[in-house]
């Protein structure tokens, strides 16, 4: 059984006991959350496609930790003008574990 669910503006294919890194979610570590924007669900070869989402379907998950990703360097330069700009960014992520899919 798996489902395609929209989490924080991104679509993920999820199954039970799967770990995911998603954009930072509101909530404390150890809290359980539910996502009700399920776009597609598969159960034993039977597919249910939502228009736009599957009615009554939910994906439950548990927030394991909040962390930061690797540093991304943003460097801008215009040649022959003496313009250089260096900046960095670290994206905030949440590690979640899918605990169940309910149709």
From TrEMBL:
> What Pfam family is a match, any one?
Ribosomal_L21p
Q: List, alphabetically, the GO terms of the cellular component aspect.
A: cytoplasm; ribonucleoprotein complex; ribosome
Source organism per entry reads Olivibacter domesticus
- PANTHER family assigned: 50S RIBOSOMAL PROTEIN L21, LARGE RIBOSOMAL SUBUNIT PROTEIN BL21M
Q: What is this protein called?
A: Large ribosomal subunit protein bL21
Q: Listed GO molecular functions?
A: rRNA binding; structural constituent of ribosome
Q: Which GO terms describe its biological process?
A: translation
Which proteins does it associate with, and in what oligomeric form? Part of the 50S ribosomal subunit. Contacts protein L20.
Q: What does this protein do, in the record's words?
A: This protein binds to 23S rRNA in the presence of protein L20.
Q: Which UniProt keywords apply?
A: Ribonucleoprotein, Ribosomal protein, RNA-binding, rRNA-binding
Q: Which domain of life is it from?
A: Bacteria
């Amino acid at each position: 059984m798996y489902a395609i669910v929209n989490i924080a503006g991104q679509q993920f294919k999820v199954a039970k006991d799967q770990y995911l890194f998603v954009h930072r979610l509101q909530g404390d570590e150890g809290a359980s959350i539910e996502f009700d924007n399920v776009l597609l669900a598969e159960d034993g070869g039977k597919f249910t496609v939502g228009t736009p989402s599957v009615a009554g379907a939910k994906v439950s998950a548990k927030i394991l930790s909040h962390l930061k990703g690797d540093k991304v360097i943003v460097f801008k330069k215009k040649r022959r003008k003496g313009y250089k700009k260096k900046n960095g960014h670290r994206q905030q992520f949440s590690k979640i574990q899918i605990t169940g899919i309910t149709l």
